[in-house]
TrEMBL record:
Gene3D superfamilies: Bacterial extracellular solute-binding protein, family 7. Pfam families: DctP. The lineage of its organism: Bacteria, Bacillati, Bacillota, Bacilli, Bacillales. NCBIfam families: dctP, TRAP_S1. Residues 24-40 have a biased composition (Low complexity). This is ABC transporter substrate-binding protein. It is found in: Cell envelope. Keywords: Signal, Transport. Residues 1-18 form the signal peptide. The keyword Transcription does not apply. One of its GO terms (cellular component) is outer membrane-bounded periplasmic space. The keyword Ribosomal protein does not apply. Residues 24-47 are annotated as: Disordered.
Length: 355
């Protein structure tokens, strides 16, 4: 009896070990970068969880849907894209961290919060750096612009493309902003970025950094008097319901970066790497086109919704630019002297080319 039991037990153990062995084998082949299925090298079956901060009306989301469409079509459904908007998966910082830990695969943050991960991105926080979108396009496409995307790899992130948030303009519930004096004491929400905070302090405002997901309520409850974002966001997020004044300060051109989790990207086949890269670029072109149309038409709509528009004269804008200049000097070494110098060179070159 005892002998029979031992035989049975041994047989059972052999079976268990065999099962473990085959499982271990297939998961190892998944880890080393080949397909997660058992016959490595053929079909991949993966899901990209993609989340953004803006709502489903915004060109950012329309662009994300375009990315989904391209990827699902070109991979023949091997890669599925699940899309989330309105900060459903968190704010820019949280979603970027999700990519690092592997609980999310794609997000498209503004460069300003990304500078907390790679400080060189703060080069785009230099106030009044880009005069127009043509120059911005050229600089972002330049070696310096693309070189910044490469730096993300050290943070376990892959930057596949620049998309566009756009020129930022100040709104508030207190007074029309025409010149630098009008910023005095205004409680302004800034993105979570030290350079922005310092710059608005220099203008005389009383800035508070805050995640975008908290912003609407903060304005509604009067925790802050105002904020700054492109017209498309101000209109599509209905900020006009809680803000009275808008001025074309155009103080920063804000790029978005299409980010993918590096561990996810590294595990894709070469073919699928190429597909997601091209899709991010192509969907970005579409997003930029929609965004520019939106930023053009929504200023009028904001006025129709009852906001007062105040234009900033070139002279007053120059005064603002001079007031924030010390901030650029202060952050130069943190951003990287070479990055700052190179970006100025690229801006000058692009200006000449587009004149
Ligand atoms: C959306 C943000 C946003 C940005 C901000 O996730 O925080 O003000 O302009 O719109 O990236």
């Amino acid at each position: 009896m005892k002998k029979l039991f031992t035989v049975a037990l041994t047989a059972l153990m052999v079976l268990v070990l065999a099962a473990c062995g085959s499982e271990g084998g297939s998961s190892a082949s998944g880890d080393d970068g080949s397909a997660s299925g058992s016959d490595s090298g053929s079909k991949e079956s993966k899901t990209i969880k993609a989340g953004i901060g803006l709502n489903d009306k915004h060109p950012q989301y329309k662009g994300l849907l375009k990315f989904k469409e391209i990827v699902e079509k070109k991979t023949d459904g091997q890669i599925k894209v699940e899309t989330y908007h309105s900060g459903q998966l968190g704010d820019d910082r949280t979603m970027t961290e999700n990519l690092q830990t592997g609980s999310q695969e794609v997000t498209i943050p503004s460069t300003a919060p990304l500078a907390n991960f790679v400080p060189a991105f703060s080069v785009f926080d230099i106030p009044f750096l880009f005069p127009n979108t043509e120059v911005a396009d050229k600089v972002l496409a330049s070696e310096t612009g693309q070189g910044l995307l490469k730096k993300l790899e050290s943070q376990n992130l892959v930057g596949l493309a620049y998309w566009e948030n756009g020129f930022r303009d100040v709104t508030n519930s207190k007074r029309a902003i025409k010149s630098i004096e009008d910023f005095e004491g205004l409680k302004l929400r800034t993105m979570e970025n030290d350079l922005h905070l310092d710059a608005f302090n220099k203008l005389g405002a009383n800035p508070t950094p805050m995640a975008f997901t908290e912003l609407f309520t903060a304005m509604q409850q009067g925790t802050v008097d105002g904020q700054e974002n492109p017209y498309a966001t101000i209109y599509l997020q209905k900020f006009y319901e809680v803000q009275k004044h808008v001025s074309n300060t155009h103080h920063i051109y804000s790029p978005f970066v299409f980010l993918m989790s590096k561990s996810f990207y590294d595990n894709l086949s070469d073919e699928n790497k190429k597909i997601v890269e091209e899709a991010a670029v192509e969907a970005g072109k579409y997003e930029k086109k929609l965004n520019r149309e939106a930023n053009e038409k929504y200023l009028k709509k904001l006025q129709e919704e009852g906001m007062t528009y105040t234009e900033i004269s070139e002279e007053n804008r120059k005064e603002m630019k001079e007031a924030v200049q010390p901030v650029v000097e202060k952050y130069k070494s943190k951003i990287g002297e070479d990055v700052v110098d190179n970006i100025y060179k690229e801006v000058e070159k692009a200006k000449k080319e587009t004149e």
